[in-house]
Here is the input.
Amino acid sequence: MMKEASEFRPAVLIPCYNHGATLGRVLEKVSRLELPCLVVDDGSDGENRRLIDEAVAARPFCSLERRAANGGKGAAVMQGVEALAVRGYTHVLQVDADLQHNLADAPLLLERARRRPEALVSGLPVYDESAPLGRRIGRAITQFWVRLETLSTDIRDSMCGFRVYPVSAFMRVIRAGRPGGRMDFDIEILVRLHWAGVPMEFVPTRVVYPEGGVSHFDYLRDNLRISAMHTKLMLEAPAHWLSRLRGSRRASGGWEVQPERHGAPGIRILLWIYRRFGRGVFRAVLRPVVFFYWATGTEGRRESGRYLRLVRGFAAARGVMSSPCEPLTSYRHFLHFGEALLDRILAWNGEFSLSRDIVLDQGADRALAVRGGARGKLLLTSHYGVPEVCRALAWRDAGTPVTVVLFEGNAQAFRKELEKEAGLSRLTVISAADFGLGTAAELESRIRRGEWVAMAADRLPAGAARARKERFIRVPFLGRPACFPAGPYILASLLDCEVDTLFACREGNRFRVSCAKLADRVSLPRLEREQALKRFAEAFASRLEEQVLRQPLEWFNFYDFWAEPRRKSPEPMRDLGRPLQK
Here is the structure.
């Protein structure tokens, strides 16, 4: 049984309206918790008032507050929590009076709340065949809007009234702006608690709709009320999104969070919308969300516009027509990035097939052939399009394993989400944060077994020391000198394998893949090291340049790519100048 303690003083709250026939049975189950209980009668009629009075009077642990007129479930809950807060209770277990909630699970919710008192703990409904179809559809629609309003999947269910509120957080939220008082309350209070930073936990619990049960949900009026509530929340949501983004930038700083500000919640909601509603709805939702990021992302918007102007000028100087079917605007640039995020997740999860989704440029099929017994290869990719489709290419024959080397801090956050959402366990991902001889030796053994290693070669590692000349090379790109990393070519010389360039981007409903050999082997003679590094970097930059001119909106660097490196910090690939012990 749940016992009271000074640091955790829970009580039970039951909002009640014309539930005289069922309240007694609910209170009988509540009595097993050995907790005080407050019933708030929300203006019930005469016969129900009598039954409610009798049920409460028969149970000493129970007290009653009565509202003069019916104001709605939310109004009753807010009045009840306020009354319990005055009495010194720290947490409130909300229970409906209609027998839908399985009170055998109440100790589980209370124990979670005791262990994590700052969190809201809610039931996660598990329905049986008694649940009306209309209710299930309505819940799915509401979940869509809640995830959009919070840009997260933290709220796993927003309509279950079986939950434990932390009283102090609850009171702060309703004093800041009182939520709707009727059937919209359960949803709105969770969104506002989430905006206030209250963590949430969900416990699966069986929910039933008893035959002859009393429901006060009016399908027309309450659905209109809930629709109005979502409209109100969506109007308020951008301010909360912006506040969270500002906090994220203050906490981390640096180019590595620009513009890849999606973070864990963004990744989860992208995938959820696609899975539930398909790509058409995903694209429709993407537009206003991307517009917000575009409007608030001053630096990313500025650098995107500067890059696109450079592309137009360079293309005009070379007499090349770039992307004639789509205007080169920074907003469209952001839109392409948003869709590419979804494609990256699906590609990591192996959901693209060679026959259905991929078109190979001339020569790519030969370059990507998997030859039995041969050494593996190093694939140099970029932040152009969706290079992750290399997984579909590698899996087409004998299931060639792929090891991906990631540099950016934001890519590591992306990786963590992929582990949960997209089955990343079937790939090997290595962080370059502490890249050294041991990691290089492991990659060399994989190459010896015929596996592939993929890494981006168009961006300097986030947080890497950029003052040492041998770690980056300035080569022409789109008509101006730009810094490209030397690390991929140093690694290639140690791996002693074939090096290919791989570019993949969406064109309509399929991906165009270009793959070509850059070198049979990379040799870096000591006396000609700088010249050799520059040759390889120039060759890669030239191939990337060709791709960018074909699809300018598919290259996703939203910072000043042409700026001189300025910061000094520990070098992730500091040991790669020394030979491997084979």
